[in-house]
Design goal:
- The protein has about 750 residues and is α+β, with helices and mostly antiparallel strands.
- About 25% of the residues lie in helices and about 30% in strands.
- It binds acetamide and zinc ion.
- The site of acetamide has 4 residues, from loops.
Length: about 750
C-alpha cells in the first residue's frame, strides 16, 4: 500500500543519492560545534588564517606524533599553497585530562593541552570548524580561512560512551571502525563493546574454540544462519584504531546470565548440562552459568586471561544483569556452594560469583563494571555500577563509596523507538540528578542493543540521539539549550552527510491529530513535528492501493471507513523509506452518544480514556503506542448506545498477542446488540483457539462479528483467559489482554 506512485519526491531522492552539492556552512563558523565548548570567543574583525589541504586522516595520526612531545608543529597538509598555516600543538600543565585551548590568532593556529587526548579533542574542534567538505577525501577546498578565535574547553564527565551490542546482530570490522569515527567526531571516549550474549559469542578464545565454532552462529526461523566473530587480529586492530582516536574499548563478557551461546558450545558449564542451541529469539533465558561448578570459574578465568591480553582497558564489564535464579535453586552444585559459603539466597550466590571474578580481575590490576543488578546480594569491592533501571542503582552505589555510570532506560536506550526516546528526551537527561557520595559518577553511556538493529539500521538509531548525549556529557548543564543545539545540529548534519553517517530522525517526524465532531465524523490532520521535514498525507482505505486525495500538512480532512493515514516525508534530501502511518477508522460507533467501559482504566495503557475504544484511533503493531487499552487479570467490556436505532453490518476489532510480554488472547469474546431498545439482545460468541497454548506470534489479532441487524446498543466483552500457564516464564502471574477500538460498520438508519 502506498500513498501514491512516487513522483516529485522520487526525483529528490535520486538527487540525494548522487552526492549532490550540499549546502555549505560558513567557514570558520562556530555554529556547528557539538558538543558545545565551555568558552568560545570569536573576533571576526581580526585577521583570518588560511589553511590548505588538511585531511582528517592526518588529524587521526597527529596524536601519534604528539604523544609526549611538548611542542610540535604540524604543517597543515601538503605545501601546495605559497605558505601553509602551521598548527602548533603544545603540552602545558594545568589542563584537565581531556581539556584543551584552541587559539587562532596572528596568522597561526595553536592547540594547548596537558595530554595527547586533550590535544586530540582540541583538534576535533578545529575539524568541526573546517568546511564539511574536508570530510571527503580530495574535496577539501584548497584554501579555507578561520577568524581569530579562542576556545577553552574540557568535559564535564570523564566517561562518555556508547554500548554497541554486536551479539544480537553481528557487525563487520569496517563498520565498527565507522562507529569509532563517529564517536571520535563527538568527543566520546569509550566504546562499551558487548561481545558475548545468548544469541552469539563474538570473540575468539584460543582455549575454547567451540565458543566461536558453535557459539557464534544461530539458525534463524527461516533456516538461514546468522553470526560471525572477531579474530584476535581484528580485535587488536580495532583497539588500536580506537586508541588513535583516544577512545578506550571496554569489552563486556557477560556473566552469569545472557550466556546461552557459551552453554551451546560447552553445555557442561550450565546447571543441567543439557545441550541447547544458540537461541534465535530475544528475551531472558533461565539457563545460565552454574555457580556451583569449579569448571565454570576455570573457564571464565581462561576466557578473561585472553581478554586481558587483547584489551588494555582498566575496566572490564562483566554484565551481571537479568540472571534468573531458577536453575541455581534446583541445582545440587549451586545449593552445595550456598551451603558451604553460608550464602542465604541465590542473590548472595550471584554476589559470590561476581565477587570472585572481580577479585580475580583486581589481582591482575583491572576493575569491574556491572549492571545495577550486581547491587543485589552485596556489591563486590571496587566494582563500578552501570545504572540502567533508572538512577537508584547509581545512588546506592555512590552512597556506599562505589563509582557509577549512568545509562537509564528513560534517556539512554537508543534501541528504543523515537516514540519512547527522542532527541529532546536524550538532550533533557540530567546526570547531575545523581548527587551524594562518597562514590563518584564517572559519566554515562547510551546503549545500542541490537535485537532490532541489524548493522544497516544501527547508525539511524544512534544518530542524531548520540549527538545530543555527547553534549549532555561534555558541556556544562547551564550551557544546555535545546533550540541552540538544534541550530548547530542543522549545520552538523552537513558534516555527517560527508562522513557517510546514515543518521535517522530527531523524533517521530509528523504528528496526527484526530477529533470526532458532535455528529460523529472523524476529522484528522497531519502536522510536521520536527524541523526540516516536508511532505503530504492521505487516507488509504483498507484494501485500497492508494489515496484518492493528498492533503498538505496542516489541512483538516474527514475519514470515512477503516484504513490508514499514510504520509510521505522528506528529510534532508532523503525520502523516508518507512514514513509514519496511522491506522484510523471513521465508523458508526463514533456517532454513539453513550460509551461506557466496565473495566478499570489501566494507568499504563489507558488507550484514550473512557471513550478510547470508540475514538477512531486503531492500535498499531506497537502495543505501547498509546492507542491500546489493556487490563491485567480482568475481563474487559465496552458498551455503546444510540437514541434511535442504527443498522449494523458487522463489528470488528483487534486484540494484541505477545505471550513473551504476558499478553494473551481472550478465553472468549461475546459481541451483543440490542434489537428493541431495552431487553432483547442477540449475540455472536467467538472462541479463540487454545489461548493459553504456546504461540510465538507477536502482533494484532483481528476479530469480526457479523451482525446484519438494526440495533440500539452494542456490548463487546473479552473474557480473561486466567493466569500465565505452567510452561510460561511468568507462570501463575495474571495475563494481560489488549483491545484497540470497537469498529461498527453500518449505516445511521435501519
Ligand atoms: C540491560 O539493558 N539489560 C542492561
Ligand atoms: Zn548450578
Amino acid at each position: 500500500m502506498t500513498l501514491r506512485p512516487f513522483l516529485a519526491m522520487a526525483a529528490v531522492l535520486a538527487a540525494g543519492c548522487a552526492a549532490p552539492d550540499l549546502p555549505e556552512l560558513p567557514t570558520g563558523s562556530t555554529n556547528a560545534l557539538i558538543p558545545l565548548p565551555a568558552q568560545v570567543e570569536v573576533d571576526s574583525t581580526q585577521q583570518k588564517v588560511e589553511l590548505r589541504g588538511v585531511t582528517w586522516e592526518i588529524a587521526a595520526s597527529w596524536q601519534d606524533s604528539i604523544g609526549c612531545a611538548s611542542d610540535w608543529v604540524f604543517p597543515a597538509g601538503e605545501p601546495r599553497g605559497p605558505k601553509p598555516t602551521p598548527i602548533r600543538i603544545s603540552q602545558a600543565p594545568g589542563y584537565p585530562k581531556e581539556g584543551y585551548a584552541l587559539r587562532v590568532a596572528d596568522g597561526a593556529i595553536s592547540v594547548e593541552a596537558s595530554t595527547a587526548a586533550g590535544a586530540f579533542r582540541g583538534l576535533t574542534t578545529l575539524r568541526q570548524l573546517a568546511p564539511a567538505d574536508c570530510e571527503r577525501p580530495g574535496r577539501c577546498p584548497d584554501g579555507w580561512s578561520l577568524p581569530a578565535l579562542h576556545i577553552v574547553d574540557a568535559p564535564q564527565y570523564g566517561h562518555r560512551g556508547l554500548l554497541l551490542d554486536v551479539c544480537r546482530h553481528f557487525m563487520e570490522v569496517e563498520f565498527v571502525e565507522q562507529v569509532l569515527d563517529g564517536l571520535a567526531l563527538h568527543k566520546f571516549n569509550t566504546l562499551h563493546w558487548h561481545l558475548t550474549e545468548d544469541q552469539g559469542w563474538r570473540i575468539q578464545i584460543d582455549a575454547y574454540p567451540e565458543l566461536t565454532e558453535t557459539g557464534a552462529w544461530r539458525i534463524e526461523d527461516d533456516g538461514s544462519t546468522h553470526g560471525g566473530f572477531y579474530t584476535k587480529e581484528d580485535i587488536r586492530h580495532l583497539v588500536e584504531y580506537a586508541a588513535q582516536r583516544h577512545i578506550t574499548i571496554i569489552p563486556e563478557i557477560e556473566l552469569p546470565g545472557h550466556s546461552r551461546a557459551a552453554l551451546a558450545a560447552y553445555p557442561e558449564l550450565g546447571c543441567t548440562g543439557e545441550a541447547l542451541p544458540v537461541p534465535n529469539d530475544w528475551g531472558v533465558y533461565k539457563d545460565i552459568y552454574c555457580a556451583g561448578n569449579e569448571q565454570t570459574f576455570a573457564f571464565l578465568e581462561q576466557v578473561l586471561t585472553e581478554v586481558l591480553e587483547l584489551f588494555p582497558s582498566e575496566y572490564i564489564h562483566i554484565g551481571g544483569d537479568e540472571a534468573p535464579k531458577v536453575r541455581w535453586e534446583a541445582c545440587a552444585k549451586c545449593q552445595h556452594r550456598m551451603h558451604t559459603h553460608d550464602l542465604p539466597d541465590a542473590h548472595a550466590l550471584q554476589s559470590y560469583f561476581i565477587g570472585r571474578i572481580g577479585d580475580w580481575l583486581a589481582e591482575r590490576g583491572r576493575k569491574i563494571i556491572g549492571w545495577d543488578e550486581i547491587l543485589e546480594g552485596g556489591l563486590p569491592e571496587g566494582a563500578t555500577v552501570q545504572s540502567w533501571r533508572g538512577l537508584d542503582g547509581a545512588r546506592t552505589a555512590i552512597a556506599s563509596g562505589h563509582d557509577a555510570i549512568l545509562s537509564p532506560t528513560s534517556h539512554c536506550y537508543l534501541d528504543y523507538p523515537l516514540e519512547a526516546t527522542d532527541l529532546e528526551e536524550v538532550y533533557g537527561f540530567n546526570p547531575g540528578e545523581v548527587t551524594g557520595g562518597p562514590g563518584r559518577v564517572l559519566g554515562g553511556e547510551v546503549n545500542l542493543w541490537s535485537e532490532h538493529a541489524p548493522q544497516h539500521l544501527v547508525e539511524s538509531k544512534v544518530y542524531p540521539r548520540a549527538t545530543a548525549f555527547a553534549e549532555v556529557m561534555w558541556t556544562a548543564p547551564e550551557q544546555h539549550d535545546f533550540e541552540g543545539f538544534l541550530d548547530r545540529l542543522d549545520a552538523h548534519y552537513d558534516r555527517m552527510d560527508r562522513m557517510g553517517i546514515d543518521y535517522g530522525l530527531e523524533t517521530v517526524p509528523v504528528e496526527m491529530t484526530a477529533e470526532v465532531t458532535p455528529t460523529g465524523a472523524l476529522q484528522v490532520r497531519v502536522d510536521p513535528a520536527m524541523r526540516g521535514v516536508s511532505g503530504v498525507a492521505g487516507f488509504v482505505l483498507k484494501g485500497a492501493q492508494q489515496s484518492d486525495t493528498l492533503h498538505a500538512w496542516g489541512e483538516t480532512f474527514t475519514v470515512e471507513g477503516e484504513g490508514q493515514i499514510m504520509t510521505e516525508v522528506e528529510h534532508r534530501f532523503r525520502l523516508l523509506t518507512s514514513p509514519p502511518r496511522f491506522p484510523v477508522a471513521g465508523h458508526l460507533g463514533l456517532t454513539a452518544p453513550t460509551v461506557q467501559i466496565d473495566h478499570a482504566l489501566n494507568p499504563y495503557y489507558p488507550g484514550g480514556g473512557e471513550r478510547g475504544l470508540v475514538d477512531g484511533l486503531l492500535g498499531s503493531e506497537d502495543f505501547r503506542d498509546g492507542r491500546w487499552q489493556a487490563v491485567s487479570g480482568e475481563d474487559m467490556a465496552v458498551y455503546l448506545s444510540w437514541p434511535e436505532p442504527v443498522y449494523i453490518d458487522s463489528i470488528t476489532f483487534h486484540t494484541y498477542l505477545y505471550q513473551n510480554a504476558w499478553i494473551f488472547n481472550p478465553a472468549f469474546i461475546e459481541v451483543q446488540w440490542c434489537v428493541n431498545g431495552s431487553d432483547v439482545w442477540e449475540a455472536v460468541e467467538i472462541t479463540p483457539e487454545a489461548p493459553l497454548a504456546r504461540n510465538d506470534k507477536q502482533g494484532l489479532e483481528r476479530w469480526s462479528a457479523p451482525v446484519h441487524s438494526p440495533a440500539w446498543a452494542v456490548r463487546v466483552e473479552l473474557k480473561n483467559p486466567g493466569r500465565c500457564p505452567a510452561w510460561h516464564d511468568a507462570a501463575t502471574e495474571p495475563t494481560w489482554m489488549f483491545m484497540d477500538e470497537v469498529v461498527v460498520h453500518g449505516r445511521p438508519r435501519p
